[in-house]
Amino acid sequence: MDIHLSDAEKVFIIHGAEEGMRADGRSLFDYRPIIVETGVLATTNGSARVRLASTDLLIGVKAELTVVEDFEHYRNRINFFVDCSANATPLFVGRGGEDLAVEVTSALDVAYDNPYVLPDLKKLILSPMHAWKLYVDIVILECGGNILDAAGIGVKAALRNTEICNVIVRPADEGKCAVDLANDNTVWKMDVSRAPLFVSVHKLGEANLVDASLTEEACSRCTVSVAVSPTPECSQDGTMLNEEDCIVTMVRQSGGGSLEMDSLDEMVRMGVRMVDELQKALDKRLKEESEDIDADPSLTFLL
Fold first, then answer.
1. What's this protein's family per the entry (predicted)?
2. What is the DSSP letter of 280?
3. SS3 annotation, the chain
4. Which of 37, 160, 277, 289 is deepest in the core (most CB within 10 A)?
5. Given this model, what pLDDT does residue 268 score?
6. CB 145 within 8 A of CB 26
7. What is the mean pLDDT of each run of 10 residues along the chain (303 residues)?
8. Pairing between β-strand 207-210 and β-strand 197-204 as defined by DSSP bridges
9. Do 81 and 135 meet the contact criterion of CB atoms below 8 Å apart?
C-alpha cells in the first residue's frame, strides 16, 4: 500500500534502521503488540480476530458439505478469500485493494497447498461422494502494515477454533451414500500444530527488520516473506527452530529491488528464527485461552 514520504523522512527511517533504532523505538526483531481473539463470530464454524498495532483482521471459517462427482481430480484443500474493506483505508474504495487481496490469498494458497501442514484434511472426505469443504474468509478492517503476517496468525487461530460436526455415512439407493448428523451432535477439531506462520523480512538500506509499519514498508527496497511449518518433534519439545527442524512451505520476494544470494539466505534464516518465537507465543496464548474459561479474550502477547 502506497504512503507518501519526503526524501528526508525516508533517509531518517533507513539510517535509523541501519543503526538498529526504529522510529517507534523497537529493535529490528521486535513485533508490535499482538491481540488474538477466537470465537468472535457465532455464525461460523471457527473465527478469530487479530490486531497487530493498527492492523485489524477478522477471519471466519465455514465448513460446507459438498457432493463430489470425481474424487480423482478433487482438490482437498482450504479455499481462501480476502476482502479489503473500504473502511480500512480510502485507497481500498472500489477495486483499490484488489492487488493486496490477491497477494495475500495467493501466499496463503501456496503455504497451505500440501497435506503435511494439516494432517486432518483426509478426515474431511466422508464417503466416495461427500466431503467437507473449508472456506476461510479474511476481512481487512484496518491496514497498519504487515498484513500477511497478521493473516497467517489469524488463519491458524481460526482453524484451531473450528468445530466440524461428526456425521454418520450410510448406504443409500442406487449405490450412493447418505450423510446424517450424529445423534449426540458431537464435533471434532483439526490438528493445526503444523500449520505455517508467516514472517515478512524487509530490507531497509543494509538492515533487515520484521513487522514493518506502513512508513517502513514505503522505505523498503524489497521484502522476503517466509512461511514455515515446524516438524512434530520440534513442536512438542519446544526447542529452537533451525533449517533442519522445519519445512519452509513458501518463500516469496516482492518489491522492486534485487537481492544477492547471501542477502536472500540471511533474510530467510531470519524469517525462520522469528517464526519460531511467533509460533511459541501464539501456541501459548491459544492454550491459555482454551484452558481458562474465564480468560479475558483481549489478552495480548508480546515478542
1. Belongs to the RNase PH family.
2. H
3. CCCCCCHHHHHHHHHHHHCCCCCCCCCCCCCCCEEEEECCCCCCCEEEEEEECCEEEEEEEEEEEEECCCHHHCCCCCEEEEEECCCCCHHHCCCCCHHHHHHHHHHHHHHCCCCCCCHHHHHHECCCCEEEEEEEEEEEEECCCCHHHHHHHHHHHHHHHCEEECEEEEECHHHCEEEEECCCCCEEECCCCCCCEEEEEEEECCEEEECCCHHHHHHCCEEEEEEEEECHHHHHHCCCCCCCCEEEEEEEEECCCCCCHHHHHHHHHHHHHHHHHHHHHHHHHHHHHHHCCCCCCCCEECC
4. 160
5. 92
6. no
7. 82 92 90 92 93 93 89 83 80 75 94 90 87 94 92 96 89 77 85 93 93 91 91 54 73 84 91 90 84 56 43
8. antiparallel
9. yes
pLDDT per position as a tens digit, 233-273? 554 455 555 555 678 999 999 887 778 889 899 999 999 99
Cell numbers linked to 26 = 523497537
- For each of the domains in the chain, give its residue range(s) and CATH number, in order of start: 7-292 (3.30.230.70)
What would the grid cell of residue 174 be?
Answer: 442406487
Backbone angles phi, psi at 203, to 5 degrees: -105, 110
> End-to-end distance of the chain based on CA atoms, in angstroms?
25
**8 Å CB contact between 47 and 136:** no
* Kind and range of the H or E run holding 252: strand 246-254
Q: If you count them, how many residues does the chain have?
A: 303
- CA-to-CA separations, 246 to 106, 184, 277, 278, in angstroms, rounded: 21, 39, 13, 14
Whole-structure pTM over 0.85, yes or no?
A: yes
219 neighbors 10 (Cβ within 8 angstroms): yes
pLDDT given at position 115? 83
- Cell numbers at 92, concatenated: 481500498
